[in-house]
Design a protein that fits this description.
Mean pLDDT: 79
Shape: globular
Helix content: 10-25%
Low-confidence stretches: 1-11, 24-33, 234-302, 494-518, 861-881
Largest sheet: 7 strands, mixed
Distance between the termini: 35 Å
Radius of gyration: 30 Å
Number of strands: 40
Strand order of the largest sheet: 15-16-17-24-25-23-22
Number of helices: 20
Structural class: alpha+beta
Strand content: 15-25%
């Protein structure tokens, strides 16, 4: 890279600003319209946010090119222009690789003339070399002005390839990982890598730029805390060990020149003054003293504020109705802090305090688990004005969450509920009458819309797109419509118009947004869904797809038909790695409707214009309208031809952790635009398939069979399966083209998914009961990284009824995966914790933990556990009807050696007593070479109550890796 130390303080910030500026904002109701090629980017949200803020932009063709790398020559131009330097080609003469007629010669010469760079050697500049990931990190650490701090800290980041980082960049990369600025890349063996020599992509720059802009103070403060901790160890911080410097200012020449000493690399680290001892942690008071209203932040953190009502997460409350609300925010603080939730205005200025937040495990504060880093507060809210309020969590006088929009919604009256059914019936009758009168469907639709616009209760009405269905928005905000699709297609229609040709995209166009990766789905669960199995003849073909999955013996498959495919089912798609949807669909509504919902409830729509929707198998009844009132009022559900329809905002709200899911949406117009595809992909889906218009039944039947035969039998990736289906059946049926968006992934998972839980959740795992991912539990922290899983017999007040019975007394997580060829060892860490000892040892109160491996492959149980810390007996049992082996187990009666004073731990679960014991962290290693390259195994961690449910037990699990 290209900066010299003596110029960096002035130039870095200017370069940083121009870098961002090189990365056409388009506004649509509070959010920028999507750049068309970022949906598959891991930095999609960051790119979008920076576009909305006017900080970065895309190219003239409405693309961002997230995977594009930046060359040293391009970076040279940016720096020269940012500093206003004069081009000087003569000064570039020493570099043999800088052609006299090159466009960048003058820029490089200007950098040499100003002393900013001396090239990658005395005779080379490497103008066409790409900027690497380690160089990019070094750039940002210097922009943070943390280079000196980095060099005073030990290089001990838990990155498996840290040794591959150049010496001049190790301290910077280590600090960036430890303070959370970079996250690493999880490998198939569960370890985290950095890949320092890989090219830095524009999406990587965008993600780091977003963090720099949004959370700069957070990273700086964390780094200062690390330095203070080093000082408090009783000795001065030690400078990062270096060899005799190989002439490099990191950003100048990447350490491979021997002509110029590395700036500051030979200086001894100054001895930092030892700070005074930190103040002791202050327990959260029952009623904290009045806190001055905090000043509005200059930038908001990214932590999410959670709002819980009646045990369920929500983003809405009812007007004029006192509502008990629990607020929660994750604060990974070493000590107890003073935290609160405030009501703020649109600019982030504090209006009033709502409640204090606590991490004390007390029911009256709504806190489930003491000292787990999640702060909670309980309050009764009563809001009288319909609309929305802005809320934000603060730690002391600094914001600790982004602004949360809580909608305030008025209940529908019985008259308004009846009105929705009346207008639905009248609209259908009007359309049928006009079709019979004119014999022209389009003219009948246009006159039906004209009639709708004369109705007092109708605020907006229209036809979606060219030849689309009828839609309307009532003055109550409820969205309705009549599907009017051509005959012989998968739209829901009572008309008899045949499908005709229209313009379609080419197959090449339809795959332009596919990211070239080789990942796989994150769950082996599959849902094949036919809400109209008795009406759509395609259902029998989807039955065959279901059979294909079942016969592969690699998936857990659900066949969901008719009324079972109701609204609540579609709230749980995060359970599935593959979703195959066989239903009716269409596009509905326009910008006026989206603008209405945005102004009223503060809803930001990711995609302007008609919204792709698909129908559930649940009919809209008077009773169910009351149950789904909030979703209807906020436009997340619509009522189309008498059935509830799923909107993109519904997917966004309820399915926020999709495990790299493959979504096949076999409904009409499922890819008319990207509104539904983006909703799935932005929430974690890997690939989305759909159709650009009304699809003929025969074409959909052929396509779905081709796609899943290629994915399952052919073990092909999603893009390969897409191309195979197009090659076999054509790019379109003359009306609808088959389309794909997202990443290029497969269905065959090898290796663990999320074995270290560093995603902050347990995505990739199936489970049941009380399972959480936490950053700490009292004094206990993860063995690696920032997060660990906790599986329990039901912790917290919400898991106990008045009789003391836990609702989640039997809990587990499990994952099915293939052991890659060459892998020999599965290892993990666990710590079993319980309130049962010592008074109930030897009794029926024998809470138990077991870790098991199950496989259809024969298991040789003669030497299953090779841990130097855990050497207990191995036990073979029957699990899932296959061979199974227990590779780790503890229980109250069998682990008595650990229930001693030395193993008491300062953790107090809700209920029970105040004495808690632990086994301490144990490390288990299991030989999996017998499974490598063969059938899948199931790894399960299971905890359950025996005898009672008052005294709780739990196991912490971390660092599950293959090697």
């Amino acid at each position: 890279m290209l900066l010299h130390a003596v110029r960096r303080k002035v130039s870095l910030m200017m370069v940083f600003a121009l870098l961002l500026s090189t990365l056409m904002p388009f506004t649509a109701f509070g959010e920028a319209t999507q750049l068309k090629d970022i949906a598959g980017s891991y930095a999609k949200k960051e790119i979008q946010s920076l576009v909305e803020a006017g900080i970065i932009s895309g190219y003239g063709d409405n693309t961002f090119q997230p995977n594009k790398a930046m060359t040293r020559a391009e970076l040279a131009k940016i720096i020269v222009l940012s500093l206003g330097l004069k081009e000087n080609g003569d000064k570039a003469a020493p570099f043999k690789d800088v052609n006299r007629n090159s466009w960048y010669r003058g820029y490089i010469g200007a950098l040499v003339d100003s002393g900013i760079t001396e090239g990658t050697s005395a005779t080379t500049f490497s103008p066409n070399s790409k900027v690497t990931r380690e160089e990019l990190v070094v750039f940002f650490i210097r922009a943070f002005q943390l280079e000196d701090t980095a060099k005073k800290l030990p290089v001990d980041a838990k990155l498996s390839d840290l040794s591959k980082v150049s010496e001049w960049a190790k301290a910077h990369v280590s600090l960036a990982f430890k303070n959370g600025f970079i996250n690493g890349i999880q490998g198939s063996d569960g370890t985290l890598n950095f890949k320092p020599k890989d090219q830095a992509e524009r999406q990587a720059l965008a993600r780091l730029a977003y963090e720099f802009k949004t959370n700069k103070s957070v990273y700086v403060e964390r780094s200062k805390e690390f330095l203070a901790e080093e000082v408090n160890k009783g000795e001065a911080p030690v400078a990062t060990p270096t060899t005799t410097p190989a002439a490099t200012s990191v950003i100048t020449d990447r350490g491979n020149s021997s002509s110029v000493p590395a700036p500051e690399s030979t200086r001894p680290a100054p001895t930092a003054p030892v700070p005074s001892a930190p103040a002791p942690a202050t327990p959260a008071p029952t009623e904290p003293p009045a806190t001055p209203a905090p000043t509005p932040p200059t930038s908001a953190p990214t932590n999410g504020l959670q709002v819980v009502v009646k045990g369920e997460g929500t983003d809405s409350i009812y007007a004029d109705e006192p509502t008990e609300v629990i607020f929660r925010v994750s604060l990974n603080e070493e000590e107890t802090v003073t935290a609160s939730v405030y009501k703020v205005d649109g600019s982030g200025n504090v209006i009033s305090k709502i409640t204090s937040l606590y991490d004390d495990g007390l029911a009256n504060h709504g806190d489930s688990l003491k000292a787990d880093g999640i702060y909670s507060g309980k309050v009764t809210l009563t809001e009288s004005t319909e609309g929305y309020i802005n809320l934000q969590a603060y730690t002391g006088d600094a914001p600790s969450s982004s602004v949360y929009k809580l909608s305030v919604v008025k209940h529908l009256t019985e008259e308004q509920l009846a009105q929705t059914e009346m207008i639905q019936n009248n609209t259908q009758d009007k359309l049928d009458q006009l079709v019979a009168q004119y014999g022209d469907l389009q003219k009948a639709k246009e006159e039906t819309v004209a009639w709708l616009q004369t109705q007092d209760e109708v605020q907006y009405a229209g036809i979606s797109g060219n030849g689309g269905s009828i839609w309307y928005a009532l003055d109550t905000g409820i969205l309705g419509g009549i599907s009017a699709a051509p005959d012989n297609t998968k739209g829901l229609s009572g008309t008899d118009e045949d499908a005709t040709s229209s313009d379609v995209f080419t197959a090449n166009t339809l795959t332009q947004s596919v990211e070239q990766t080789a990942a796989s789905i994150g769950s082996k669960r599959v849902a094949v869904i036919s809400p109209f199995s008795t009406k759509l003849t395609s259902s029998t073909v989807y039955d065959a797809v279901y059979d294909e999955f079942v016969q592969s013996n690699s998936f857990l498959v659900d066949r969901v038909k008719d009324s079972a495919a109701d609204v609540n089912f579609f709230k749980g798609l995060t359970n599935y790695g593959v979703v195959v949807l066989d239903t009716h669909g269409d596009t509905f509504y326009d910008d006026n409707v989206l603008q209405m919902l945005h102004k009223k409830y503060g809803i930001d729509f990711k995609y302007a214009g008609p919204q792709v929707m698909f129908l559930t198998g649940e009919k809209a009844t008077a009773e169910s309208k009351k149950a789904y009132e909030l979703d209807l009022r906020k436009g997340r559900l619509a009522i189309i031809s008498g059935y509830y329809a799923i909107t993109p905002s519904f997917v966004t709200r309820y399915n926020d952790m999709l495990p790299n899911t493959i979504v096949f949406n076999g409904s009409c117009r499922s890819m008319y635009n990207h509104s539904m595809a983006d909703a799935f992909i932005n929430n974690g889906a890997g690939t989305y398939y759909g159709y650009t218009d009304y699809v003929k039944l025969a074409y959909d039947q052929a396509i779905v069979q081709s796609v899943f035969k290629a994915l399952i039998d052919g073990n092909q990736t999603t893009e390969e399966a897409f191309k195979a289906a197009v090659d076999a059946n054509g790019a379109s049926d003359g009306l609808a083209a088959f389309a794909m968006k997202g990443s290029n992934i497969g269905t065959k998972t090898e290796g663990l998914i999320n074995g270290t839980f560093e995603t902050g959740n347990w995505i990739g795992w199936n489970g049941n009961g009380d399972v959480r991912v936490i950053s700490k539990l009292g004094p206990l922290k993860p063995t690696e990284g920032n997060y660990m899983a906790i599986i329990s017999t039901g912790l917290g007040y919400e898991n106990n009824d008045f009789g003391g019975v836990d609702y989640n007394s039997d809990s587990y997580i499990e994952q099915s995966f293939r052991i890659p060829a060459g892998v020999t060892t599965l290892s993990f860490d666990y710590n079993f914790i319980s309130e049962e000892p010592t008074e109930f040892v030897g009794s029926v109160y024998n809470d138990t933990f077991k870790a098991t491996v199950t496989s259809s492959v024969y298991i040789n149980a003669s030497n299953v556990v090779t841990s130097h810390l855990y050497g207990g007996d191995t036990v073979t049992t029957s699990v899932f009807g296959n061979e199974s082996v227990t590779i780790g187990t503890e229980s109250i009666n069998e682990s008595t050696a650990y229930w001693i004073d030395e193993n008491k731990v300062a953790i107090d679960f809700y209920g029970g007593d105040e004495t808690t014991y632990m086994t301490n962290w144990k490390h288990v290693e299991y030989d999996v070479s017998q499974f490598a390259g063969k059938a899948s195994i199931v790894l399960r961690f299971h905890v359950w109550d025996q005898g009672d449910s008052i005294y709780d037990s739990a196991v912490l699990i971390d660092n599950i890796i293959l090697k």
